[in-house]
Each structure stands twice: as structure tokens, then as C-alpha cells.
Amino acid sequence: MSSLLHQRTSSQNPFPNSFPFSPRSSSISQRPISIFSPIVLLVLLSLVVVFGVFSPWAGMPQGIFSATDPAISKWRHYTLEQALPFVAKNGTVIVCIVSQPYLPFLNNWLISITRQKHQDKVLVIAEDYASLYKVNERWPGHAVLIPPVLDAEAAHKFGSMGFFNFTARRPRHLLQILELGYSVMYNDVDMVWLGDPFPYLEGNHDVYFTDDMTTIKPLNHSHDLPPPGKKGRPYICSCMIFLRPTDGAKLVLKKWIEELQIQPWSKTKKSNDQPAFNWALMKTAKEVDLYLLPQFAFPTGGLYFKNKTWVKETKGKHVIIHNNYIIGFEKKTKRFRDYGLWLVDDHALESPLGRL
Ligand SMILES: *[C@@H]1O[C@H](CO)[C@@H](O)[C@H](O)[C@H]1NC(C)=O
Ligand SMILES: *[C@@H]1O[C@H](CO)[C@@H](O)[C@H](O)[C@H]1NC(C)=O
Ligand SMILES: *[C@@H]1O[C@H](CO)[C@@H](O)[C@H](O)[C@H]1NC(C)=O
Ligand SMILES: *[C@@H]1O[C@H](CO)[C@@H](O)[C@H](O)[C@H]1NC(C)=O
């Protein structure tokens, strides 16, 4: 197999400087473990993508990977229509959208959800093939990729055009799930569940969400959409949303998509998709049944990580913690560690994915 790989890659090597097989393919048989190192696996997966895409035109025989590993070709064509009925419980799914750099956060989030016994209905929307294969290899059927695939390198820099493109797909994915008849809870993966959020989704409202403002509200605050702030719109977080498959919820998502098209990314604004979500909520508030979740249970990171007095006062009431109001993987990881919320170090085996 290594010689096959060598031949194929010498003609169409997508990694001219970093491909690890070519120079030492002869040593592979003595060191079989190296085949499974993360870098090598990544390269293999990338090759699958490249060959999977190009093989029909290159006139190659059966792809080596699809022949030896039917699982991979299976997940490549796994659709949302197949995934939803498999994963949903009582017509409800919990989704997140991840690219490969976020996998540790995905695992951390999953451990916390598993502790609340809601992991069975989690569907990971993978933004690259590496994440799709990794999750489905460990946890068959729980990841799906909705084409097209974005440039993963660019997608994880907050404020970049790649990041904007990445988040702009969120309302489309969610709308597709509603159109298929499912309720959906969306979470960013830099979140940790300390409790079960479902009892808080009371009533039969169309859309449930949380405020991203740090201003402290009374415990019995209104569940209406908050009034607009300085920017002429509210500051609702696009990080945690629950939607029922109603016309009202679909209207909000369609408006969100429209708002993203009206105010596309620009270098000066460095926007993400949250402002557009807020414009959409404001513009549809009269027609749609909206519900603001309680701040004590769903505080913004700007409050939870910054006001110890408030945290003490509301002790025992927190349900989902969001690691926002901070930028960068390292900083987020450190803050979760400092607060005892980085669970992957000691509790990885509680995750349905195990240790990644
Ligand atoms: C199932 O969903 C319905 C409608 O959304 C809800 O009223 C009911 O409580 C749910 N049942 C369980 C067991 O979660
Ligand atoms: C983002 O999307 C725009 C429009 O679809 C496209 O022109 C651009 O190349 C994309 N950029 C990145 C970094 O993905
Ligand atoms: C919250 O409680 C205070 C004092 O008990 C009361 O005056 C206020 O009207 C309540 N607010 C709402 C929105 O129910
Ligand atoms: C922190 O929380 C306390 C208790 O709720 C509140 O009185 C105080 O104003 C808050 N501090 C800031 C800076 O928001």
C-alpha cells in the first residue's frame, strides 16, 4: 500500500513539502505505529478528498481508500436527510458546526452534554472532511457534512472573511433542519452545560435565545426581545438558539440570511453573523413568538467570567456557560481550565468520542 501511495502522490502530490511518506516509505514497515499518527492520518484523509474529487477525471482505477475503507466513502455521502431521523429524539436535535481546529472544544462540550444525558441527539455539522470522518469513526452517524466545503485555514480566524463565511452558513443549515420538520437547538462549541437547558424552553414559542449584554437583569426579567442598544439593535447571542419547525422560526432564519446578504463582510467592519441575527429578530418581532431565556441560567461570558459577586449571588442557577468576550483558542482553553470547565484533560472518556 505504501508503494501505491508513493506512485500516486509522486504524480499528484498535493503536499510537495510536507508529505511524510515519500522520503521514508521504506521505513514504514518497521514502524507501523507511525501510520496512525495524527499528521499522517490527516494527510491520508486529505488524499481521500483529493482523489475522491479527481479520480473520475483522472481515469484512475477504483480509489484505494474507497475500496479498502467503505466506511469513509459511506460518510462522504451521508446527508442531513439521513442523519436527522437517526439522531433526533422526539423530533429534536442538538447541533453544532465545527471545523477541525475546534475538535477539542467539541469534545469538551460533548462531555458536558453527556453529563446531562442529552448526547444521543447531538448532530455535528462538520465543515471539513477530517472532522466528518473523525467524529463518525468514533461515533457513527453523528456527523454530517453539508457541501460545499470551505477553506478551513481561513475559517477559524475571528473577524476574517473566512470566519464570516463559516458563520454565514449557520442560518442556512438551521433552516434546512426546520424545513425537514425538526426542532433544533444550536450551540457554539465554546460552551459548557452545567445543567439541563430543556426545562427552560417553556411554552410553545418559535425561537428561544440568550442576551449577550453584560448588564445585570433582575431574576424575573421579561422574556421579550430586549430593546435596541446603541447600535440600533439588541445584542442577542447567535451562540445558543432553540427553534421549533414553525413558520415564525423559519421567517427569522430567512430574514437572517437576507440580512447577511444586505450587509456582507467588509475589511473595515470585520463582522460576524450576530448583528444580522439581531436585525432579523427586530424586524420579525411583531410576527414571530420570541422568547428570551433567563440571564441567571444562560449568562454571557462577559458576565460569568468577569463578575464574581454576580456568580456567587446566582450560584446553582447556571445552566450553560459561554466562553466568549475573549478571543483565541489558547485564551479560551486557559480560561476554561482556570474555571474548572476544561473537561477534556481528565474526563475525555466520558465523551462519546473518547480521547481525541
Ligand atoms: C416531545 O415533544 C413534544 C412536543 O415538542 C413535547 O411536548 C414533549 O414534552 C416531548 N416529550 C419528551 C419526552 O421530551
Ligand atoms: C467567502 O465567500 C465569498 C463569497 O461567497 C468568496 O468570494 C470568498 O472567496 C470566500 N472567502 C473565504 C476565505 O472563504
Ligand atoms: C419583578 O419583581 C419586581 C419586585 O418583586 C416587580 O416589581 C416587577 O414588576 C417584576 N418584573 C417582572 C417583569 O415581572
Ligand atoms: C457585579 O455584580 C453585582 C451583583 O449582582 C452588581 O451589584 C455589580 O454592579 C456588578 N458589577 C459590574 C461591574 O457590573
From TrEMBL:
It is found in: Golgi apparatus membrane. GO terms for molecular function: UDP-xylosyltransferase activity. GO terms for biological process: rhamnogalacturonan II biosynthetic process. Residues 118-336 form the Nucleotide-diphospho-sugar transferase domain. The chain crosses the membrane at residues 33-58. It is a single-pass type II membrane protein. One of its GO terms (cellular component) is Golgi membrane. It is an enzyme of class 2 (transferase). Its EC number is 2.4.2.-. Keywords: Cell wall biogenesis/degradation, Glycosyltransferase, Golgi apparatus, Membrane, Signal-anchor, Transferase, Transmembrane, Transmembrane helix. Belongs to the glycosyltransferase 77 family. PANTHER family: UDP-D-XYLOSE:L-FUCOSE ALPHA-1,3-D-XYLOSYLTRANSFERASE-RELATED. This is Glycosyltransferase. It comes from Senna tora.
